[in-house]
Amino acid sequence: MTKYEKEIYDIISHSYSHLTAEQIYEILKKKFPNVVLATVYNNLNKLYKNDFIRKLSIEGMPDRYDRTERHDHIVCRDCGKLSDIKFEDLTDSIKRQFKNDFLSYDLKVFYICPECKKKRGME
Amino acid sequence: MTKYEKEIYDIISHSYSHLTAEQIYEILKKKFPNVVLATVYNNLNKLYKNDFIRKLSIEGMPDRYDRTERHDHIVCRDCGKLSDIKFEDLTDSIKRQFKNDFLSYDLKVFYICPECKKKRGME
DNA sequence: ACCTTTTTTAGAATGTTTCTAAAATTATTA
DNA sequence: TAATAATTTTAGAAACATTCTAAAAAAGGT
User: Could you tell me the residue range of the domain that residue B9 belongs to?
Assistant: First the structure.
């Protein structure tokens, strides 16, 4: 792992906030003021390809990067707010159906977060 | 529902191929040569907000639109190819955990499709 | 030290999606 | 039905995220 790859990996694996490339870049700049956004993307892609990090695509927002430790997500359908949840582990069940022939899975539960419920006027 | 909203809804609900906005636009143009891509986006957003269609965000590809009928997806981690699968229904299970307070969920299973396996040289 | 490979940089380019303001259409009301 | 209001569509610009390209810098190997 190169310097930046390691740094970016550390940022993601110690964060619980599903950072965007831009946010990672901002964090990295504090320590390495000369680093460039393309470097962040390069290393994110490399880390993702090698399964060191997860990549989350939420409809209508930039991609977010996450630690690989098994957990699921709940997403507000109105504002896109993303939080961690831990739902039952489906690995074995999926393995059974696909005869081990899968890498990972991604479960997203959609809801309306309390703030957006207020906005919508549905208490 | 307006004319285009209805047309777009029909295209999506009769298709099993997870169309992009661009693809829907191309289909629509055959019947309405003057329609414009922004109209497609407007109506897709409206349909999505009102829960008439699903929206699928796959890492590194344009959003895709899908019928709401319950089913899941399997995605090739290398090329992004998307196919329908039907995994056990998790609705009740999630309902139990979230006390009915959720709208829907989205399960994506990642794998390497046969073509990409060949490319990678892993038969 | 020299050559090779990999990584980073800088900035342009690409692709998707949203935005804006005007025009067209549809619905409402008098 | 004419007048007005509200909604939808258009056209094109703009925004935003991400990738690409070529050169420079850094790291690795002999």
Answer: 1-67
